[in-house]
Amino acid sequence: PALQGEVETDVCVIGAGYTGLYSALFLLENGFKVTVLEAAKVGFGASGRNGGQIVNSYSRDLDVIERSVGHQQAQLLGNMAFEGGRIIRERVAKYQIQ
Questions:
Q1: Which of 68, 5, 16, 6 lies closest to 40, judged by CA?
Q2: How many Å apart are CA 46 and CA 59, to the nearest integer?
C-alpha cells in the first residue's frame, strides 16, 4: 500500500528491485527496522524484466581478466561470481521463493 503519514524507521530503501529488496532483507535479518518505498510495484523496473538467470561469469572470460588484473585478483573475482549465485540459492531455499 502507499505510504500514509509518517513512519519511523532505521533505514529507508528506495526501490523494490533485486538490489533494494536484497538490501532490505539483509538489514532486517541484522535487526534494523526497514521501510521500502517503490513508485510503481515490486520488481517493476529492470528486475521485472530479468530472465531469472544466475550467470557465474563476466562479460570476459577469467583468463582475459587475469591478463589485466593478475592471477590473484582474477581468482577473487571468479570466487565472487560463484558466491553471488550461492547467496541467491540460499535465499530462495530459506524463504521458499518460487
A1: 16
A2: 19
Give residue for cell 518460487.
98
- Long-range contacts, stretch 40-48, CB < 8 angstroms, 24+ apart: 41/16, 42/16, 43/16, 43/17, 43/18, 44/16, 44/17, 45/15, 45/17, 46/17, 47/17, 47/18, 48/17
Residues facing 25 on adjacent strands: none
Q: Residue 29 is which amino acid?
A: E
4-32 per-position pLDDT tens digit: 999 999 999 999 998 999 999 999 999 99
Strands 11-14 and 34-37: parallel
pLDDT in tens, 24-55: 999 999 999 999 999 998 888 887 787 777 88
The grid cell for 23 is 538490501
